[in-house]
Specification:
- The chain has helices at 42-50, 76-85, 114-129, 190-204, 216-219, 263-273, 300-304, 346-350, 392-396, and strands at residues 6-9, 16-19, 60-62, 65-68, 72-74, 93-94, 103-109, 135-140, 148-153, 163-164, 176-180, 233-234, 252-254, 281-288, 293-297, 310-318, 327-334, 339-343, 356-364, 372-380, 385-389, 402-411.
- The chain is α+β, with helices and mostly antiparallel strands.
- The strands form seven sheets. The chain has a five-stranded mixed β-sheet, with helices on one face. Strands 2-1-13 form a three-stranded antiparallel β-sheet, with helices on one face. It has a three-stranded antiparallel β-sheet with strand order 3-4-5.
- The protein is built from nine helices and 22 strands.
- The protein has two domains: 6-273, 3-Layer(aba) Sandwich (Collagenase (Catalytic Domain)), CATH 3.40.390.10; 281-411, no CATH class.
Length: 412
């Protein structure tokens, strides 16, 4: 990477920090390493570390929560939830939460940020809407009726960050982007500002950094951002490398750089937010004969790379993202018993002794309907193994397995 000053559009809930890769004496006073460590309550640090965050530097409090790793904004409620779940998923990347449904996402810009930022937002919106996604972005003048608010924040409040945002919750986009008024509100870098806003909106609708596994690719330094409590799930159809040059979701960007969507960016956005019902994907079945454990995943590479597991074919079709009428099929794992367990009832899994939550395996229908078939659930108590199949006879004829009901209904 050419050594110039760059914006650090950092980890999961992207903040953008201005620093230099030149000699140390040329470091800007807003270098990310200059952020002073604040006294943070011990219980907050413990919960963040349990969720997989790095807390040694870049952790500070903000009016209604905390920023960790220089840029990830979390409320105390979100910290509590992430500490309980700690969903670490494999490898363009998305979070385990997305925006549901076909909807208009209304974005509001605080007047204090001025006409230039409004113009930059309009350009960012144009880039998204040109893809004809099921999410239509629209700038609104309503400070009370909106989905995302872009508001000013002081340099001191953001500890040098250019901007911070968050990830979706409960099927809705994160509702706040804070922009540093020391850098925004009156510049001539329209393309760059539009790219920054588009990047932050990307986080608000569930995208991780394209180079999350190696921030050094775009920033010149830094390593793996980790699961950050929200997952880092590879998006099918995009490169499987840990970085894609010129992607709008790279962690760092040059101050004068404009990053409109490249081909793989468009693929990623269309994969997650294509209009209409997304196509169902294969739910692969693997088996470890030495440990007597069946494992199901929509990520073929995850199964292929699981030590001791042999591919047994496609168990069924499943939706990778939520579509109308579907609910989550939760994944749990008991490391002591070596058993994967899938259920639509989150509480059932949470209350199963020895099982740890592993995220959402996919989405299924809770009831029968046209072009749906049942996914049957069986259990072998002596071998502590759950088995799922759409073939009732296969399950009934499996020695030692007892029928345990229907896990969900899946597309034919």
């Amino acid at each position: 990477m050419k050594k110039t000053q760059i914006l650090s559009v950092i980890v999961a809930f992207c903040a953008i920090i201005f620093f230099s890769c030149e000699e140390k004496e040329n470091l800007d006073p807003l270098d990310e390493n200059s952020i002073e460590q604040q006294t943070i309550p011990k219980h907050i640090i413990q919960k963040l570390e349990k969720a997989g965050f790095y807390t040694n530097v870049g952790l500070y409090g903000i009016d209604d929560g905390y920023v960790v790793e220089n840029d990830i904004f979390l409320s105390e409620e979100e910290i509590d939830e992430l500490a309980k779940e700690n969903t670490s998923q494999a490898k363009h990347y998305r979070t385990s939460n997305l925006v549901s449904g076909t909807r208009t996402v209304k974005v509001y810009v605080d007047p204090a940020l001025g006409s230039f930022v409004r113009g930059a937002l309009d350009e960012a919106i144009r880039r998204y809407n040109a893809l004809n996604l099921r999410l239509t972005l629209r700038r609104t003048s309503s400070a009370t009726s909106n989905d995302i608010r872009i508001v000013p924040a002081s340099n001191a409040a953001l500890s040098g960050s250019f901007a911070i945002a968050g990830f979706p919750r409960n099927g809705r986009p994160h509702n706040l982007i804070r922009m540093n008024t020391s850098f925004y509100g009156g510049t001539n870098r329209l393309g760059n500002t539009a790219s920054v806003i588009a990047h932050e909106i990307g986080h608000c609708i569930g995208f991780r950094h394209t180079d999350y596994a190696n921030r050094g690719f775009s920033c010149g330094s830094g390593g793996n951002e980790g699961p950050a409590g929200v997952g880092a799930i590879h998006i099918p159809g995009t490169p499987t490398t840990h970085a894609v040059a010129n992607s709008w979701m790279l962690a760092c960007i040059g101050r004068n750089v404009n990053r409109p969507f490249i081909a793989s960016d468009k693929t990623a956005l269309q994969n997650l937010y294509r209009k209409g019902t997304p196509a169902a994907v294969s739910f692969y079945r693997f088996y470890n004969s030495s440990r007597v454990n069946h494992f199901y995943t929509a990520n073929r590479n995850e199964g292929n790379n699981a030590v001791g597991y042999r591919y047994e074919g496609i168990a069924c079709k499943i939706y990778r993202t939520k579509v109308s009428g579907t609910i989550a099929l939760y994944r749990f794992y008991n490391a002591g018993a070596v058993n994967h367990f899938y259920t639509r009832n989150r509480n059932e899994g949470n209350n199963a002794a020895g099982y740890r939550y592993g995220g959402i395996a996919g989405y299924v229908y809770p009831s029968s309907g046209a072009n749906r078939i049942p996914l049957y659930r069986y259990y072998n108590s002596s071998r502590v193994n759950h088995f799922y199949t759409t073939n009732r006879n296969e399950g009934n004829n499996a020695a030692g397995y007892r029928y345990a009901g229907i896990a969900g209904y899946v597309p034919k």
